[in-house]
Amino acid sequence: MHAWPASEVPALPGSGRDLRIHDTATGGRVTLVPGPVARIYVCGITPYDATHMGHAATYNAFDLVQRVWLDTKRQVHYVQNVTDIDDPLLERAVRDGEDWTALAERETALFREDMTALRMLPPRHYVGAVESIPKIVPLVERLRDAGAAYELEGDIYFSVAADPAFGSVSGLDAEAMRLLSAERGGDPERPGKKNPLDPMLWMAARPGEPSWDGASLGPGRPGWHIECVAIALDHLGMGFDLQGGGSDLVFPHHEMGASHAQALTGEHPYAQAYVHAGMVALDGEKMSKSRGNLVFVSALRRQGVDPAAIRLSLLSHHYRADWEWTDDVLTEAVERLARWRAAVSRPDGPSADALVEEVREALADDLDAPRALAAIDAWAAAQSAEGGTDEGAPGLVSRTADALLGVAL
User: 173 exposed, middle or buried (CB, 10 Å; 0-12, 13-18, 19+)?
Assistant: First the structure.
């Protein structure tokens, strides 16, 4: 599976700062100091609907991570998956009378278009679950053969007891985990499981549903969590720098994924930091496909909204905050974009050397994009009120907004 084209990232004078970021597993800030190549895995879409603002906010957060690392002169090895086989995808295809593969391909293509328009840097590896099945099957077999998994009526379940560190990502108690498991795709009430929290690794073939050769597992399809583990271990290995996604993935997805990998390898941790973006609401409720309260990136683009304004809407909120999409959020972003573009269109202006460092420091401090925006706002206001004599300043501000914030002026 291919990703989308990369926009050029301008080079800035000097060098950026190491990223200090909130780690869900420890509940506090950690300073990430990767090697020459920073490794990041971000969970991708299940392609049964278009990119909504909640998706965009999540991928914007981890795009900022990439940009901070690139500014430190590191390379970035970014991997993202596509869950192109899953119950919600099959259910939507049945509802609409559409072939599930055609639905997945169409929505994945639209996602690529949205990411390109928003200037999100693409992953080095963009990998679908279906294409990963030949790598997933041996991992499930290894877990089963090691006693970390068991069979129940043809399905294969992971035993959470196989990982001594289970629970260390989310920090939740068993009852909270059980409730979230039932809400987010698990089956804690199924009779015969060793532990209600045990997640499925391999689902035996069901009538009328697609299935693949599972070798000794029998025909079927993979569970959600093992899919990401197979892709991450294949491309990044254990102990990669950052596991990212929305806050709704903390449990069960990231908890279970970490336990799968740790049981497979005997190593800990799966990732050095677990970083999660907040949820975006509309009309007081989290945007979700099940509720149907979605604002789509593609719909805004069709209405003629500049993608840079959409991106500024996202950047105006801290990535970890839960916030609500309103018309005012977009209006403020459109106005900010116009002010910035007017300011950098002049032939000279106030010095921007300090501005570059302010933006760098804001982003290195747990991706504080609102503070970075305020710094550029202040420069634009000074440009409007007083002007300046530095002929290189407007260009430097423009390159800073592009390189660090992904906003083309």
Answer: exposed
